[in-house]
Structures are given as structure tokens and as C-alpha cells.
Design brief:
Chain lengths: 264, 68
Amino acid sequence: MSGAELGLALSVFLACTVEAVEALTIVLAVGSTRSWSSAMSGVGAAVLALAVIVAALGPAITSLPIDVLRVLIGGLLLIFGLQWLRKAILRSAGLKAKHDEIQIYEVQSTAARAAGAKHDGFDGYAFTIAFKGVLLEGLEVAFIVLTFGANQHRVALAAAAAGLAVLVVVAAGVAARAPLAKVPENTLKFAVGVMLSSFGMFWGAEGAGASWPGGDAALLAIIPGVLIVAIALSKTVARTLDSAPTAHSGQVTADSTDQATVSA
Amino acid sequence: MTRARTFGLAVWEFIVGDDWRTAIGVALALALTALVAAIGVSAWWVMPLAVFGLLALSIRRAARGSSR
């Protein structure tokens, strides 16, 4: 396995681990309070939908000319990676609420109990919430699998890395029988943001016609470079907040689909 | 709202997220890289400069927004 393929597999594995932990919390909440069979039906339907998306879009994307593919995918990965990195930096600096799986589990469980009486047999609420949770969290992973995999013509490797992450998370969830609150989600998101941004920058520039000094070996400088800049930004923001604590009156919110915002 | 519009907005939100300026900046940086490469000058340095600048500006905007 080459360095780029290792980077691909690692990035997809980490991204999928984070999203799988978040999806697991939702499924556990509706499964334990409503109906396991209906929740698992929702999970199965969502996984099937994601597989269809990857199978349908994968060949279409990989048929694009290599330079078009690289500039398009590099740009998309970079935009996506900078979103992950931005949120991770804001969380580590204390400007954004960190994901609390226990709290999300409680909120989802309370909503599930308040959603009306359960019926024997199929439970539409449990199915729908599990389906939406897995599909929404999984879409980000599908996007990363497609973009990373297509660019290196290794969609199968990317899909395998994602599948392995799901297996690991599900096994841990079954063993713990509780939300995986101890997984360092922000650290993982930080790492994924660094990887996506680095590979996006590398491929985007190549697709646009630039040649990196050292070729693929340039990634050995780009990835640590992005990491150092991200850590420096995080520390700078945290230091600024520490030196002016009264200025920081923003309200920090986060929801279960990671579309958290910092609002004034 | 039509389904096409709803779908378009969902795709925009999914890809671009809550900081459209960064997305525009990435597109401009790629265009600048292509331009510099096209005139025969080494262009690899454009993207790192642009990316680090865009990230810093994005974090600064978020930090300022939260302190208002």
C-alpha cells in the first residue's frame, strides 16, 4: 500500500468512525426506548441508500479526465476539509460546544418517549429517526469515500476502510451497550480536517496545473504544515479569549447532526 | 418552494456549510493557481498561502461573531 493509499484509508476510517459514533447514539436512543427491530430496519434502509449512492456516483466520477477530476475533487475536499477543521479549531478553543454523546442520547430518548404511543410491530418513529440519523451522518462519509477513492481510483479501498470503521464502532457499542462518550471526537475531527484539507490542497493544485516539489512526497510536508497552522490558530484563539474573558459572550450551540453554529 | 430548489439548497448547505466565503476563496485560489501555471511560473505555493489565509480569516470571523 502506497503512502497516498494509506492516507486515503486512514482519512476515511477516522471520518467514518466519528460519524458512526454519532449515528450509533441516535440508533441506541430510539432502539432502546421504542423498537429495536424498527430502528434496525431504518439503519438497514439507510445503509442500502448510501451503498446505492456510492455505487451509482463512483463510476461516473472516475470516468472524468484526471485533471478535471483532481481540480474538482481537490476543491470539494478542501472546502469540506476546511469546514471540519474550522469547527474542530473552534471547539478546541472553547468557542463551540463539543459533542456530548450522553447528552444527545438523553435528548433523543426523551423525544422518542414523547413521540406518542408505541404500537406492536412496526414503529414508524423509530424507523424514521434511525434512517435519517444514519443517512445524514453517512452522507458525509459517502462523500469522502467517493472523492478520495475516485481520485486514486480506489473507491473499493475507501469503502472497505469505511466499513471497517462501522464494524469497530458497532462492536464497541454492542460491548458497551451505551453511547461511546469516551471517543475523542474532536481530536478525530481535527485529524480528519487536516487530512482532507491537505489532500484537497495537493490534488487541487495538481489539477490546476501546478507541480509540487518532490511530487507525492510533498504531502509529507503539507500534512504537518496544515496541522501546525491549525494548532497555532487554535491556541491563538484560546489565548485571545483568555486575555479578554468578558468579550466572549457568544452563545454556543450544537445539534446532533454536527451543524453546530456559534451565535451572538 | 420547489423540490429542485430544496434539493439545491440542501446540496449547497452540505458542501459549502456555514462559511460561503471560504468556498469562494478556494475556487479563486484554484483559478489563480491555473493562471500562474499557465504563464509558465511555478504555482505550487499559491494553494498553501491561500488555504492558510482562508482558514485564519474564517476562524477570525467566527471568533469576532461570538464576541459581539
